[in-house]
Specification:
This protein folds into three domains: 212 residues, Hypothetical protein, domain 2 (Endonuclease III, domain 1); 120 residues, Nucleoside Triphosphate Pyrophosphohydrolase (Alpha-Beta Complex), CATH 3.90.79; 155 residues, Aminopeptidase, CATH 3.40.630. 41% of the residues lie in helices and 18% in strands. The chain has 20 helices and 15 strands. Strands 8, 9, 10, 11, 12, 13, 14 and 15 form an eight-stranded mixed β-sheet that branches. Helix 2 packs across helix 3, helix 2 packs antiparallel against helix 8 and helix 8 crosses helix 11. Bound molecules: iron/sulfur cluster (SF4). The site of iron/sulfur cluster has 14 residues, from helix 9 and helix 12.
């Protein structure tokens, strides 16, 4: 028989608890990572980040041994980057002091950097079944409604009162399930605003339901509005490189951003700001306005492109080419600026024809070809087949295309090779197009296809063949006007490799 709150709640949880990628484990490392991610981030958002993070850092030893920059990169898009920095420090501490074994001890867990009362309680209860309520926003809301707490829940004495109530209700067994059940109830039934009391297993014992004021609880004092800061984001570019700075300020510490200048709103002020950095701007072009809302601050940003003549190496900051920039941890706050920076760098992309008289060095391009080929095809053939595809073999393939009269292009941004393309003018065909793994999804393929369209003969049908296991390539060609003309062709039965032939009809004007 259901006697108390915990019985009712756990029964409900067994039927209605959420299935989440980070649930169903007793591994304290996985629970800790997920709980840190869940602070200030929506549960739906965390799933993919959690899987990717665990793939990269499968245990506390891998995380402790990583470079902070790589941890921040994996955190990119989650925001609140101090969480990632603390996670990294805490992993090092866990390895150093506990040999990587998390203790079944709330107080010791609390000593980890970035682990507060909530996180320590979540790990202690879920991993070790210790009776510690994890008082997050969900638990605060549910308990304040259940027990009719109508004082401001930010006041320390009210917080203590709620924690005491939660302590009393906590069962001696299934402590982790009890916390997770409350989290789920708060997320799906006892939601902020108007709760769905008809579906609530605790309706019969709920004060706020009886009093009819659940939507007014919990009581929270109005928060201070975030302060607006106006600034210019300077995209300072030179010869395929862009200037970036590593932040030393507490906000977004150790993340890379483009130079920021406050009180800089017009062309002249932007020019002066760039000059102050020891650089000579060729131009200052305003690109767009954007904003990012932090908890206590709003960055109201104007994005400016400032090409400069010379890369002054003594300037504060560092110059990066496109692949280098792609590898940096860059916060979402400057996401729009990052997109513009990529666009600017791609505008300077060069298509260097290797079989023209001036070039004979195929090696960097063959290497880029090999890296991209491996990424796409390493699981699509026998080990022998994959082993044969060395950079030297790829160079032979490219030279073979050149000797057959095809045009072999090295795709270059600044001083970096970012891909390879082979065009056959006689057959009016794109024979090969590969983009390096570290700069994919940046529009390089699309730029290359545009280049191909302008070099092939638009008065005849154009041809290309795409591998079915690279759906993004198929999408890209279709967007450029190519249509599928034949059924898929099976290339390798054992490894299930198929390809699709596409044609862009003669005279397509898009
Ligand atoms: S009855 Fe309504 S207000 Fe009370 S705990 Fe359940 S959902 Fe929340």
């Amino acid at each position: 028989m259901e006697k108390n709150m915990a019985d009712r709640l756990l029964k409900w949880y067994d039927r209605h608890g959420r299935t989440l990628p980070f649930r169903g484990t007793k591994d304290p490392y996985r629970i800790w990572v997920s709980e840190i991610m869940l602070q200030q981030t929506r549960t739906e958002t965390v799933g993919v980040f959690f899987m990717n993070f665990l793939e990269r850092f499968p245990d506390v030893f891998a995380l402790a041994a990583a470079r902070e920059q790589d941890v921040l990169k994996m955190w990119e898009g989650l925001g609140y980057y101090s969480r990632a920095r603390n996670l990294h420090k805490a992993a090092q501490m866990a390895v150093r002091e506990w040999n990587g074994v998390f203790p079944a001890d709330y107080e010791k867990l609390l000593s980890l950097p970035g682990v507060g009362e909530y996180t320590a309680a979540a790990i202690a209860s879920i991993a070790f079944d210790l009776p510690h309520p994890a008082m997050d926003g969900n638990l605060t809301r549910v308990f304040s409604r259940l027990h009719g707490i109508r004082d401001d829940v930010a006041i320390p004495s009210v917080k203590r009162k709620l924690a005491d109530i939660a302590d009393r209700e906590m069962p001696r067994q299934r402590c982790g399930d009890f916390n997770q059940a409350l989290m789920d109830l708060g997320a799906t039934v006892c939601t902020p605003g108007t709760p769905d009391c008809d579906r609530c297993p605790l309706k019969g014992m709920c004060n706020a339901y009886r009093e009819g004021d659940a939507d007014m609880l919990p009581v929270k004092a109005a928060q201070k509005a975030p302060k607006r800061v106006d600034m210019a984001v300077l995209l300072i570019s030179c010869k395929g490189h862009i200037l970036m700075k590593k932040r030393t300020e507490a906000l977004l510490k150790n993340m890379w951003v483009y130079p920021l200048a406050e009180d800089t709103e017009n062309k002249e002020q932007v020019k002066q700001a760039v000059k102050k950095m020891g650089l000579e701007p060729v131009d200052t072009i305003k690109l767009c306005d954007t904003r990012h809302v932090f908890t206590h601050r709003i960055w109201q940003m104007q994005i400016w492109h400032c090409p400069v003549r010379l890369e002054n190496k003594t300037v504060a900051g560092q110059w990066f080419n496109l692949p280098e920039m792609a590898a940096l941890p860059i916060p979402t706050a400057v996401k729009a600026a990052r997109q513009e920076a990529v666009r600017i760098m791609l505008e300077e992309m060069q298509f260097v024809r290797l079989n023209s008289k001036r070039f004979s060095n195929y090696q960097p391009t063959a290497y880029a070809y090999w890296e991209s080929w491996m990424q796409v095809n390493k699981d699509k053939g026998s080990p022998q087949f994959v082993k044969e595809h060395t950079p030297t073999y790829m160079e032979m393939v490219l030279r073979g295309h050149a000797s057959a009269g095809r045009d072999v292009y090295s795709l270059q941004v600044g001083d970096k090779v970012v891909g390879v393309m082979v065009l056959d003018e006689a057959a009016n065909e794109i024979c090969t197009l590969y983009v390096q793994p570290d700069v994919q999804k940046m529009g390089i393929g699309t730029r290359a296809v545009q280049f191909a369209l302008s070099h092939l003969d638009g008065t005849r049908d154009m041809h290309v063949t795409a591998l079915d296991h690279v759906p993004q390539a198929l999408r890209m060609y279709k967007k450029a006007g190519f249509v599928q003309v034949k059924d898929h062709r099976l290339l390798n039965k054992t490894y299930n490799v198929w390809e699709t032939a596409l044609v862009r009809p003669a005279g397509d004007k898009r």
